[in-house]
Specification:
The protein is mostly helical. The chain is built from 31 helices and four strands. The protein has four domains: 97 residues, no CATH class; 150 residues; 104 residues, Serine Threonine Protein Phosphatase 5, Tetratricopeptide repeat (Alpha Horseshoe), CATH 1.25.40; 117 residues.
């Protein structure tokens, strides 16, 4: 159960930190208990967000925030929970201040209480709250508490603790098992990722705590092993879970990286520790998950740390080494850009340009250079680079890259009013590209009217259109509609094998004056096949959507009556279908 005292355990660390930042900067306003247990507040962020929280005592029963975050508890709810807790603490402090010191005489008549027995049934959360509140009002008790547990964490036994093994056990031991009801987005997977990430949160909080104590070794061990374990245990399913800005595997990697940067900047961190961090990061960066999935940019982290502890020359040496070992990876261009930026930062413009030329075979680098040339109006040189890129892409059979370069060429030709080149490029993109309607529209405005029909017919014959009607639509069919070429449209509808009902629903009404009889026959045949193969209310409701489309055709009213009558006899044992067809 989420409570006011333990809600941090149910919130990813970074969201918790963001919520604390909102609270610490007084972003929470108009906090009010509108009725017992019902709290409302406004949190100032990108916009002003309204938060509502329902509580039963200290149990958090539900929460609402009108921000776009669709995960569990958002940072705005965290901020309000902190405000509510602080409000309660102020009330508690006043209660503590009224506590009377027991005299020795009164103590003598107190019952002899067994503290262990008392603690055996006291609610742990209530005990934690009491300790926290009492420590905030009693400096001596707070000092005893801090000395006891800080000394324990900093003891020789703790320093010898193998956090690497302990963190890896978190990933190894969390198999199936019962899941919590909170943000259990991974319930269908073999591992209980919710539990794993909750434990990772705890470890990262501990690393932050060690850093505040100046215990650099333990902080480093925890953070590096967190990155290593995530990389070694990552599963494909998590790729689809990282679907928002405030939750996902990358969040934990990002927080671990932020902690490493803090470690490197800590005055107690030695040069050897910094060098060891870099060396281990190099090893972690080679884990295939980081290379192939891009869940976190380890290279950027290494570069950031590298620049903070050594010269630019050493950083360039690091990049050159990475460029050699990763020359076949998909993200090589990112390393090239880092090298270029470092060189420009050193006013080494010639070396930066040489590096760009060396890696022009990478589409990302070529595009960057082309865009720079366009900004400086060096259009002919940009066209030369694009033509060169087209030749490379054709050789490698990368049609999408060819079209990308053609699109940029078209943009240049339009900017420089080269009409004949615009026509030629639009035609190429129409024949080979995807967005055919765009290029059809451009060409129709450029080709003389008397030549247009012949030009379009020839171009359509050169083009290989998809056999599928995506969401019932087709570029080929849309062009026939725009051209009022209904014979070709009917031929296309007659020949389509996939999604025929959807295609008929979208286009048949254009042909009702000329082909209603044939279209009704096509509808009837397709609808009979569909009803035979598909059962369930959802499919019956689709049939009910098709029937009004048939009704619009000439003779459609009679056709619909016949179809419904036939279905009522043929499928009388399908009560859901009978119910859906009742309105007909």
């Amino acid at each position: 159960m989420i409570t006011l005292d333990n809600f941090e355990n149910f919130v990813p660390y970074k969201i918790l930190m963001r919520g604390e930042e909102y609270y610490d900067t007084d972003a929470v306003s108009e906090l009010e208990e509108t009725s017992p247990g019902e709290w409302a507040a406004t949190v100032e962020g990108t916009d002003d967000y309204n938060v509502e929280i329902s509580m039963n005592g200290k149990d958090v029963e539900s929460w609402y925030c009108d921000c776009p975050y669709d995960g569990g508890i958002c940072k705005h709810v965290v901020a309000v929970l902190l405000a509510i807790r602080d409000n309660n603490k102020r009330v508690s402090r006043s209660a503590f201040s009224k506590m009377r010191i027991v005299t020795k005489e009164e103590e003598a008549v107190q019952p002899d209480v067994d503290i262990k027995q008392l603690l055996s049934f006291v609610n742990p959360q209530e005990l934690s709250t009491f300790i926290s509140e009492y420590a905030s009002t009693n400096p001596e008790f707070k000092m005893v508490l801090l000395n006891r547990f800080i000394s324990e964490e900093s003891s020789s036994t703790s320093k010898g603790k193998d956090y690497r093994t302990e963190i890896q056990k978190t990933f190894n031991s969390s198999g199936g098992g019962k899941k919590s009801r909170y943000h259990n987005r991974y319930d269908d997977y073999n591992r209980d990722w919710e539990t794993i990430f909750n434990r990772v949160d705890v470890f990262l909080k501990k690393a932050d705590f060690f850093l505040s104590l100046g215990d650099i070794d333990n902080a480093i061990a925890i953070v590096l092993q967190t990155l290593r374990s995530i990389g070694e245990n990552y599963e494909d399913e998590l790729l689809y879970a990282d679907d928002d800005d405030d939750f996902g595997t990358s969040l934990y990697c990002e927080h671990a990286g932020d902690l490493l940067v803090k470690v490197v900047g800590h005055p107690k961190t030695t040069q050897k520790q910094k060098t060891d961090i870099l060396e281990e990061l190099r090893q972690i960066a080679e884990i295939s998950i980081y290379r192939n999935y891009g869940i976190y940019d380890i290279d950027e982290l290494m570069m950031q740390i590298n620049l903070s502890i050594q010269s630019t020359e050493k950083a360039l040496e690091l990049i050159d080494g990475l460029l050699e070992t990763r020359k076949d990876t998909y993200d090589l261009y990112q390393l090239v850009l880092r090298k270029v930026n470092l060189l420009l930062g050193q006013n080494e413009e010639q070396k930066a340009n040489d590096t760009i030329r060396q890696y022009l075979y990478l589409p990302e680098i070529r595009e960057m250079e082309v865009e720079k040339l366009i900004v400086y109006c060096q259009y002919d040189e940009a066209i030369r680079l694009l033509n060169e890129g087209i030749d490379i892409a054709k050789e490698d059979i990368y049609s999408s890259t060819v079209n990308k370069w053609l699109e940029i060429k078209l943009r240049i030709y339009e900017m420089t009013n080269r009409t004949s080149e615009v026509i030629d490029t639009c035609r190429l993109l129409f024949v080979t590209g995807r967005d055919k309607l765009t290029y059809y529209g451009k060409l129709k405005t450029l080709i003389p009217k008397e030549q247009w029909k012949s030009y379009l017919d020839t171009m359509m014959k050169e083009t290989e259109f998809s056999n599928y009607f995506s969401f019932g639509g087709s570029d080929e069919a849309d062009i026939y509609v725009k051209e009022k070429d209904y014979e070709h449209l009917f031929t296309l509808l007659s020949s389509t094998r996939y999604d025929r009902l959807e295609a008929l629903m979208r286009y048949a009404h254009y042909l009702k004056d000329t082909h209603s009889e044939q279209l009704i026959a096509m509808y009837t045949s397709s609808l009979n096949d569909y009803a035979e193969r598909n059962m369930g209310r959802k499919n019956y409701e689709f049939i009910a959507q098709v029937l009004p489309c048939i009704h619009k055709l000439k003779g459609g009213q009679t056709a619909v009556k016949n179809i419904v009558a036939e279905f009522r006899i043929k499928y009388k044992r399908r009560p859901a279908m009978m119910e859906v067809l009742g309105k007909f």
